[in-house]
Amino acid sequence: MKQQLKSKPPITTPFYYGWMIVAAAGLSMFFSGPGQTYSISIFIEHYISDFDYSRSLVSGLYSSATLCAGLTLFIVGRLVDRWGQRIMMTIAGLLLAIACFWNAVMAGAIMMFLGFFMLRLFGQGSLTLIPNTLVPQWFIGKRGRALSVMAIGGFASSALLPLLNTWLIDAAGWRMTWTVWGLLLLIIFVPIAYYFVRNQPEDIGEIPDGTPKVVQDDNESPAIEVNEISWTLKEAMRTKAFWLILFCVSVPALVNTGVTFHLVSIAEGKGLGDSVAALVLSMMAIIGFPVTFLVGYLVDRVPVHYVLAITFGGHVIALFVLLQVSSWTGAVIYGVVWGIVNGFERIVLSIVWPNYFGREHLGSIKGLAQTVMVLGSAFGPLPFGIFYDWFGGYQEILWVMIALPLLAAIFSLFSPKPSYSN
Hints:
The protein has 422 residues and is mainly alpha-helical. The protein is built from 16 helices and three strands.
């Protein structure tokens, strides 16, 4: 692939500018937090209490809004390919800030649905999709390591936001908490995304991983050449691996969202308080953070479908542990296991698409994958809420959920990187 040299980086750095892109992408992962379930879940009990809604109704609103967001997200992927990550990241940040302000003045079920929809589309959807298409543009050989550094932002978000939201809601109320996140997005994230982000290393005269190789064509300006096969979305969809991996990436979204959305209620059902639920979410992030660095090196050396299978094996173990939790100590053990699994998941689910299908059409390919992931997350909370209303607890739905990562582990083993043929 060749791109014409276009401009200089916005600032001069003594290191490869791609690491500045990784930092900006990590910030995007952090600020996706207001639209993530680990953040929204802290508000749910307050919504149920203040609006006098049933758990099933709120779960249904959340699931249907997430479903609608998922069905819309593929458009974001196509726009990323057309307009580039810089413009799309800036727009998504602005729209997520508006979504936060909307939730601050929310009144009634319709506004709640629209609030959930905007949070999920612009936060959980767009501000995780865009950085996961941006970083692979800047790295190939060091892609796993770069994604593991980017993941710091996501882990910091999932570690801090449950505790911050709990504190802010107690101190100032849930409406003011949403206002604070809207202001932070406008003041911090949006200017950084606009000023520092560049779409590709070719735009500033470099290539992925930071080793320039400039070639001169006759009668043409210098160009940069990168040897990496890039599949179109239609080409990728003709492979067996695409569809098996697509199912696999939907499983953590469905299971984790269901567990996280109802974690406070699950903890209370086991005789534990909401503070324990917040602790588990934070522990998951803290434990998962160092694991990502190990996985980042691992996926640069081991075929990714093997690492993917290990990840889903860990999901099965985590659900078994959650079924057995009956004390604070058990909750801590679950947080540790879940954190290890999450550390694997954050890297392997991001790297599989660029490693299998290249960079050029990654927005469209990852956009479709992210759509399926959001759809999976849409169907997570609702069955948990329904089973709770039917059985008065969550044991039955957790047993049902174990089958999904077990099947995904098997599919992963049968999904090696496909060979390109025109």
